[in-house]
Amino acid sequence: MHAAYHVELLKLRRGRVPAVASVVVLLAPPLLAWAFLAAAQANRGDPLSAKAAAMALGVGWAGYLNGLTQIAATGGFVGIGIVVAWCFGREFADYTVVSLYASATSRHTVAAAKLVVVTGWAAVVAVVAAPVALVIGLLAGLGSPDTATFAALGRLAVLLAATGMLALVVALFASLGRGYLAGFAGLAAIVVAPQLAIVAGIGAWFPWSAPALWAITPLNPTLTAIPTWHLIVVPLTALVTSALTLAWWQTAELS
Amino acid sequence: MSLMPSALSCQHLVKRYGDLTALNRLDLIVVPGEVVAIVGFNGAGKTTLMRVALGMVRPDAGHVTILGADLADGRPDWSRVGHLVDPRFGYPELTVTENLYAAGRLHGLPHRAAQAAATAVIERLALDPWASRRTRTLSQGNRQRLGLAAAVLHRPALLVLDEPSNALDPSGVVLLRDLISEIVAEGTAVLVSSHHLDEVARVANRVSVVHAGRVIGELDPAGRDLERTFFAMVHAADANQVA
Predict the structure, then answer these.
(1) How do residues B36-51 score in pLDDT, each as one tens digit?
(2) Largest Cα–Cα distance of chain B, in whole Å?
(3) Binary contact (B54, A110; C-beta < 8 A)
(4) Between chains, do A110 and B56 touch, taking CB under 8 Å as contact?
(5) Nearest-angstrom CA–CA distance, B1 and B3
């Protein structure tokens, strides 16, 4: 058991995909939020300024965090989902899956280690994302953060950690489709699905939209807040998708 | 044939892919301390046989026993099995040493034993110049050497190699031959497939000819003109099939 975790951690540390994804997930949302805030305030009449103004994100820390959380909800899922697709799909793309058969360490154990390691990586990224966002906000000249700022940064960390669990569904797509492309296709479908769920009025309970709504609504007083206990759908969804992925790895034949 | 308990026993194996019968009631036994080579044309069923024997694909009928354990009933002791059935072994982002360490751990070796085994097999297979190189930078031949190293570093009791000399240079072929002789002397059972009759004749105790999913006969490794005997055997099998 321990060996599979050790090996998966080694592959994650050496891989370019997790390194690039870490930087993108940590830096892209706060930098984009900063850019949107600056564009809305400058109001130069260019398309970006017009779009930023139309989003009515607000001003100061509240506006920055509002934009940041909305971007991180989707961008974080894409970034983390790409790492999950890589972690599972690469075994087929690189033909390394062959060496996982007839091995003292079962494929079930290897898959479990992959799920735990990518979830752990996402949790680390989530924890680091809050101070990174704080520093970029300070560099943007937003002034001293208040209690509401720290609360929003805490929600951002929880959102990204939840995203790490929700992105495990991509492992199932990459396994079933035996490669990255199936993982990416599933990822794209899951990015679109929350919008449909929100339009259908079930966004507060849909696993892939509930954490984002929970994190975003306190920053938008006109929206109805989502109770924290709705987040129970996150670990439940992760358990179901993980169980299906493990079952696949335990029984799948080499194609 | 020896009366020793078999390391690998395949009985009446059948495997179909749609209307293609890849294995047609195939029987094969490998006992400890012997090298059994299987030779045959492309598509004869050699790779399918190895994949079925290693539990990579399930047979439609028949039984496989590995080191005394029935493949269908329970979990064989895979820590005593080594294999190379795809030459594209290794994680590209890991170095040669890291890949071998990872292979050792997944074969069941503890941390220090895996480190020691990786170091030893790097030296044994002359991979020292590439030990710290990432696997993505290796030539095809060195990648195959890496795969061989990963297959033997835990000193398995059963070793299965599918065309292991395909990408090797002459020095690599000699290394492979010596490695097989060495590991067989320790009591390991080896099943190896190849297209090169003269090459398998040098290492094998028995040479089984696989054709149309069946073992149609054996070649004497010490015999003369193996190629002529091989073709005669295959043509006779085809003639019987038509009749």
Answers:
(1) 999 999 999 999 999 9
(2) 61
(3) no
(4) no
(5) 7
